[in-house]
Design brief:
Layout lengths: L3 H17 L5 H16 L9 E6 L3 E5 L10 E5 L4 E12 L4 E11 L5 E6 L7 H4 L5 E5 L6 E6 L7 E6 L13 H6 L3 E5 L22 H13 L4 E7 L1 H12 L6 E7 L5 H11 L4 H12 L4 H4 L23 E6 L8 H9 L4 E6 L7 H4 L1 H12 L8
Parallel strand pairs: 9-10, 9-11, 11-12, 12-13, 13-14
Antiparallel strand pairs: 1-2, 1-6, 2-5, 3-4, 3-6, 4-5, 7-8, 8-10
Length: 394
């Protein structure tokens, strides 16, 4: 999703714009809206450290207290700019007076754990599947019009024609999807975890911008083609955050959609307009500027302003409005305290299509950390949903 670094860029400009826009000139409004649109669609090349390691104990670690470091569950820490990685578990102690939290230390996967800056890893896993999960892994490239997209294939224990394709979120890494691999394999699915345009290590899109799923679905379509070439006859799709938006576009536009039996969406973007409005409010962007930025994204005449090759029609990402077009069963897992992607549209979609959509609310998990907070429940729900006997919601 929108990174904290990107949010700060929007916020800084929003504060300036709030004053400047009061002047009321058309050029100020247009310039501000153009900037906001560009920031929302531009990949963030930076992955800055966001937490400080204060003390390392024998079997625990003390960190700065932040909204992320106090969330229950298991997480990772990227060390030395991503060269190292450690894993932490439950919260053992919180000292509000010092602004510190102590968590169980579960292990150091690589590098050296020392006091200093680090980056919080909500995926928990920090290595490829063979190293993180100890599972056989094939490193492959998915052929696309933009060039080869790196991917991992984790085969099922027995030969199978059932494949799951797992799609990570905006600015995220493929590691985000690894939490789903064990339960899917237990149900006999081979897992394909592809990258897509503008990912780290993957080809950029024609304009180097995110298209909010409206173009990225083509790379998932190519991943499905690879799975079919490898013998897949049934596809399960799973997506996190913007990966959910990509999955929904794939279900709508892919020629292979009839082979997809069902999908799992975790903290998905069901309506990009709602998400963009949410971040505009959080970052004090004036409503007229935020509204105009979304208009600019979708106008052909504004493509050069926004820096996109194809117009990004945000209305096409509103699946509450498009609910009647859905034809695939969807399991939506979404925490009601999600600070990046509000759960409202997910719940609204479930109300609009109770025949197809099952909504499972979480609490405390914030954005896409439902597995971390309660892995047993998450895995049980996913296994039930993808099993051959899974029933649609009543």
């Amino acid at each position: 999703m929108i990174s904290s670094h990107t949010a700060r860029r929007i916020g800084t400009y929003g504060a300036v714009t709030a004053v400047s826009a009061a002047v009321g000139t058309a050029s100020v409004w247009l310039g501000a809206a153009t900037y906001v649109a560009r920031v929302a669609l531009t990949p963030d090349p930076e992955r800055p450290d966001d937490v400080e390691i204060r003390v390392i104990h024998t079997d625990s670690i003390t960190l700065d207290l932040t909204p992320e470091t106090v969330v229950p569950g298991r997480y990772g820490l990227w060390l030395d700019g991503g060269k190292g990685h450690a894993r932490v578990g439950e919260v053992l102690e919180i000292d509000h007076s010092l602004g510190r939290v102590r968590r169980r230390l579960l292990g150091v996967d690589r590098g050296v754990l020392r006091p200093g800056p680090a980056r919080w890893n909500q995926y928990y896993y920090g290595e490829a599947p063979d190293l993180s999960l100890g599972l056989p892994t094939e490193y492959v490239d998915v052929a696309t019009d933009l060039g080869p997209m790196p991917a991992w294939i984790v085969p099922a224990e027995e030969p199978t024609a059932r494949w799951a394709i797992l799609v990570h979120g905006r600015g995220a890494l493929r590691h985000e999807c690894l939490r789903a691999v064990p339960p899917l394999r237990r149900q006999g699915l081979t897992c394909l975890i592809p990258s897509y345009r503008n990912d780290e290590g993957a080809p950029a899109g024609p304009d180097g911008r995110y298209n909010l799923g409206l173009a990225e679905w083509r790379d998932v379509d190519d991943a499905i083609r690879l799975a079919i070439e490898r013998g897949a006859q049934e596809i399960v799709l799973a997506g996190w955050s913007m990966g959910g938006a990509i999955v929904l576009q794939t279900l709508s536009q892919s020629e292979f959609a009839p082979l997809v039996s069902r999908a799992v969406l975790d903290g998905p973007v069901v309506d990009w307009a709602d998400v963009l409005r949410h971040h505009a409010v959080l970052n004090s962007v004036p409503h007229p500027v935020a509204d105009l930025s979304r208009v600019l994204m979708g106008r052909r005449w504004a493509r050069r302003l926004v820096g996109v090759r194809e117009s990004v029609d945000v209305a096409r990402t509103n699946w509450v409005e498009r609910a009647e077009e859905l034809t695939h069963p969807l399991l939506i897992i979404h925490s009601r305290d999600d600070e990046f992607v509000p759960s409202g549209p997910s719940e609204a979609l479930a109300r609009a299509r109770p025949d197809l959509v099952r909504f499972e609310p979480w609490s405390l998990a914030r954005h896409c950390k439902e597995w971390n907070v309660d892995p047993a429940r998450w895995e049980r729900l996913v296994e039930q949903w993808v099993s051959q006997k899974a029933e649609l919601p009543a």
